[in-house]
Amino acid sequence: MTTARVRTICPHCKAVLEIDRRSSSSVAICGACDADVEFDRSSRNTPATINHSSPGDSALRSFPIVPALDGILVKAIVFLREHWLVLLLTSVAANLIWFVLIGWPINMLREGWSQLGREDGGSLSLGTLLSGSAITGFLLVPVSAYTLVVLVRLSLEITRYGATLQTENKLSQIVNALRVPFSIIMRMTGLLLMVATLFAFTSFIGLIATVCLSFAMDQQTAVWVGTLFVGALLVGIIFLLQWLLWPTVFFISDGRADLITATQWGAGLSMRHRKLTVSLVTIYFVLATAGSMLFYVGQILTTPIATLPLAIGYLRMTGGEYDRSETLTSSEDS
């Protein structure tokens, strides 16, 4: 995303601060502890990397944080009102990439496999279907990871630099949002593969349970009971994983940790701030479920809306800053 940035550690609460070099102010406010942090000009010329002198403290601090949920939602609404066009167009672009590379090929392959058993043999040969299925299966997780990372990084960008971004060209913002480091995509791919493996294992357990039930009751009843059991179990696992791992998604997308470290930090953050993280993920779960019911159009609309509160909560818990000059300007105007 934006390259004119410097990351360092808040000297008061060990939160990670990300400072915009384009700002004329030399003072920022830590978004975690609200302390003023001064920066000289020389510190703004350092590389845009995290100061890892205390990486554990920067992600899992003992500093007490009690961010109000209503304040987060109000701020998310403000950001949505100011940046809805960029969010919508970026979501359309990212989902269009996913549809072209994954959605449309899956529909074509589904039709091809269904026509393969007919007398005319269908329009696609067996070799074409096999190779197409292999390529689509290989791209499914990385492309899905890319789409997720794009929206998360854009939400973080808006949350950190909302006022600065309003002066930038909308097209350049969208192009910058679609540029994601390859290493981050690979880390997110690993996380999604871990989740997919867990889902596959759960489905396998449900299949075994259904087979066992078929010996104790009639086959139709066993299928119904097994389906309900697996469905309820998967819904519970989805919510549990979203609660434990949504900070992990932000740690990875933010480039702050590798897969293993981000998973540890994310789960620890969710456990430490249970009330806030459960509330935020519940809102996300409801919006994402509603969007899934409306298929592609619903996901395009609801995903960026649902991601903004998570981005604000993530920065509140781990450290985010806003430009001191914005606060001074608003106070002078009032």
From TrEMBL:
<keyword id="KW-1133">Transmembrane helix</keyword>
<keyword id="KW-0812">Transmembrane</keyword>
<feature type="transmembrane region" description="Helical">
    <location>
        <begin position="276"/>
        <end position="297"/>
    </location>
</feature>
<feature type="transmembrane region" description="Helical">
    <location>
        <begin position="222"/>
        <end position="246"/>
    </location>
</feature>
<protein>
    <submittedName>
        <fullName>Putative membrane protein</fullName>
    </submittedName>
</protein>
<keyword id="KW-0472">Membrane</keyword>
<feature type="transmembrane region" description="Helical">
    <location>
        <begin position="191"/>
        <end position="216"/>
    </location>
</feature>
<feature type="transmembrane region" description="Helical">
    <location>
        <begin position="126"/>
        <end position="152"/>
    </location>
</feature>
<feature type="transmembrane region" description="Helical">
    <location>
        <begin position="84"/>
        <end position="106"/>
    </location>
</feature>
